[in-house]
Write a structure and sequence with these properties.
It is found in: Cell inner membrane; Membrane. The protein has 251 residues and is mainly α. The chain has eight helices and no strands. Helix 5 packs antiparallel against helix 7. The two termini are 27 Å apart.
Length: 251
């Protein structure tokens, strides 16, 4: 039952039809949300009582870290679908998402180092969350390198899917590292059972940036997936693609 449903959803022709109108909407949303979030974050939100103006790094760092984790979760789920049901579209989505996730992991680490210098006095400390984020960076890099190193696409899809699924173990470690071990990072201040511990003047730009990054992720993933499907359609050896599903030509 699940396999049949996924077979319908994983049809490239259906994907091309449905995703076409979403691309410009996602791009426009990303532009508007990130633009509004940046203006509010850097010109209208208040400085922090202890960190001063340096707190504005948060509006880039925190959403970037969220998106790095979210993108890897998408890759892991898509890899599971591709590995179990061998749907080409799932493998494509996982593959094209990786560079985007890698970029935001780098952004999260770089901005975190700058913020750490201001708040902790050092650029880097082997803090549990910093270390687990660095592991995420290596997972992204290894995943991308494997796709590039293995010539047979079906084999590459299977091996990369295994890596992505195994690497997903790191996601809860990143999330709960501040609760499980002594950490320089503060505990959750936004998503908490008793509500955010931040004023609305800081939450608004933070959420605008986060949703803007998410819209940018959708825009990028759809553009890259659509381009990949078009390239595959034009390639004579398309039947060698890693999929057991029956695929219609994408328009």
């Amino acid at each position: 039952m699940v396999g049949k449903t996924l077979s319908k959803l994983a049809n490239p022709a259906l994907f091309m039809r449905v995703s076409g109108p979403i691309v410009p909407i996602a791009g426009l949303l990303a532009l508007l949300l990130i633009g509004a979030g940046t203006v509010i974050a850097f010109f209208f939100s208040p400085p922090d009582a202890r960190q001063g103006e340096a707190v504005r790094i948060m509006y880039v760092h925190v959403p970037a870290a969220w998106l790095a984790l979210q993108t890897y979760a998408v890759i892991a789920v898509a890899s599971l679908v591709g590995f179990v049901w061998r749907h080409r579209l799932a493998d494509v989505i996982a593959k094209v998402s990786a560079p985007f996730g890698l970029a935001f992991t780098v952004l999260a680490l770089m901005t975190g180092m700058l913020w750490g210098k201001v708040t902790w006095g050092v650029y880097w400390d082997w803090d549990p969350r910093l270390t687990s984020m660095l592991v995420l960076l290596f997972l992204y890099a290894g995943y991308i390198a494997l796709w590039a190193a293995i010539e047979n696409e079906a084999t590459a899809a299977r091996i990369c899917a295994l890596l992505a699924m195994l690497g997903a173990v790191n996601l809860p470690i990143i999330k709960f590292s501040v609760d499980w071990w002594d950490s320089l990072h503060q505990k959750a201040t936004v998503i908490r059972a008793d509500g955010p511990a931040m004023p609305a003047s800081m939450l608004w730009p933070l959420f605008l940036m986060a949703f803007g990054y998410m819209a940018l992720s959708v825009f990028y993933t759809l553009i890259r997936t659509r381009s990949d499907l078009r390239a595959r359609k034009a390639k004579p050896g398309e039947s060698k693609a890693p999929s057991a599903a029956v695929m219609e030509p994408a328009e």
